[in-house]
Amino acid sequence: MSPRLSRRLMLGAGGAAAVRPVAAEDDVIPEWSRTLGEGVDQHPYGKPSIHEKAVIRRDVGWLTASPQSSVNFTPLHALDGIITPNGLCFERHHGGMADIDPARHRLMIHGMVERPVVLTMAELKRLPRVNRIYFLECAANSGMEWRGAQLNGVQFTHGMIHNVMYTGVTLRTLLDAAGVKPGAAWMLAEGADAAGMDRSIPLGKALDDCMVAFAQNGEALRPEQGYPLRLVVPGWQGNMWVKWLRRLKIGDAPWHTREETSKYTDLLADGRARRFTWVMDAKSVITAPSPQAPVVGHGPLVISGIAWSGRGTISRVDVSLDGGRNWREARLDGPVLPLSMTRFYVDTEWHGQEMLLQSRAHDSTGYVQPTKAELRKIRGLNSIYHNNGIQTWLIRPNGESENVEVG
Ligand SMILES: Nc1nc2c(c(=O)[nH]1)N[C@H]1C(S)=C(S)[C@@H](COP(=O)(O)O)O[C@H]1N2
Ligand SMILES: [Mo]
């Protein structure tokens, strides 16, 4: 440890009060060092330490009427880096989770194509594949915060997002093989769940960077995420990423249903509506400290957060400790990839001063994440979807934190 860092750990700017001398209990040999541990094969599929048992997906009871058409939230306050562990990816189902036998699952590609095909999973896995890391954000993420600070935890305000590495086959590969007919402009994607969820996607997007994925973070997709196959629609809102994917139909016009049309609509203050807002604009949030992750002591403090943009790469993140009056540039660490979460840090010191923490993302298009006031000026208070406003956490002198808004 560098002398400077050890001095900071021992003293902090507060001086002697923060010193913790070596105590008798630091010398005790703990019980786990005195007996042999469990052998291999006790857990053929491993789990996190029992001491991490509070790090789980959680839901908000009053939000939805049934668990089959509901959502839970990724525990962002407890995660680091950019990859969301498979067991912690938030779930959003409209008709419950389909339980599919992959041997009997099929993907049909038909409509305006020269050679309609039906593929088994085994056949799909014989096609050239790619690995890509992308965020998936539900359009309703932060939707409960449109009228003011409401939910006290980043898991609940921002947890309808996950970021994983997908393995699969690009739609370019599949649709080139099927041979798209001239005049085709849209693609319908349909799921095999009870909701039979379907979505219309412009063909240009499908051919640009969409893929069908059969693996997440190196292993088979989880049932919650659409096992055995899901559509990946990079940078675009989560509801288009059809899970339990069974059919792709090519056509010359969209199939928008009424429900879908309302999904793609943001009601403005003057009664007009924004329609077909598919792309997720740049957004960021400080994940710790935050209401579920209080500051634990005086001295060094790591402020940590995530930023993402559906339009490109995160080029910079600013952090404010005083509610947006002064900003400093955060340190990006780990892979900085397009349409993926990016991790940022500010390494600072804390000595009990009240803070109003904010983060502000910039992306490669030059776009800057707006304040909530700026967003409301344009979008009013009636929206649910696409709230990418700047989040504020109040840090109290005792280290606890609260979801607040500043002027
Ligand atoms: N077949 C099907 N696909 C679906 C859904 C669904 O209910 N059924 N929900 C959609 C919505 S609204 C979102 S936000 C994402 C959530 O993906 P996740 O459960 O992997 O987080 O899946 C989308 N794909
Ligand atoms: Mo969603």
Q: Can you walk me through this structure?
A:
This protein has helices spanning 3-11, 121-124, 154-158, 171-178, 203-209, 258-263, 372-379, and strands at 70-71, 92-93, 106-111, 117-120, 130-137, 161-170, 186-191, 198-202, 211-216, 219-220, 230-232, 245-251, 265-267, 273-275, 283-288, 299-308, 314-320, 328-329, 331-333, 342-350, 355-363, 392-395, 401-404. It has 407 residues and is mostly beta strands. The protein has a 5-stranded mixed beta sheet. Strands 5, 6, 9, 10 and 11 form a 5-stranded antiparallel beta sheet that branches. A 5-stranded antiparallel beta sheet has the order 18-17-21-22-23, with no helix packed on it. The radius of gyration is 24 Å and the shape is globular. It starts with a helix and ends with a strand. 38% of the residues are buried. The model is unreliable at 11-17 (pLDDT under 50). Molybdenum atom (MO) binds at residues 92, 138-140, 238-239. Ligand MTE binds next to strand 2.
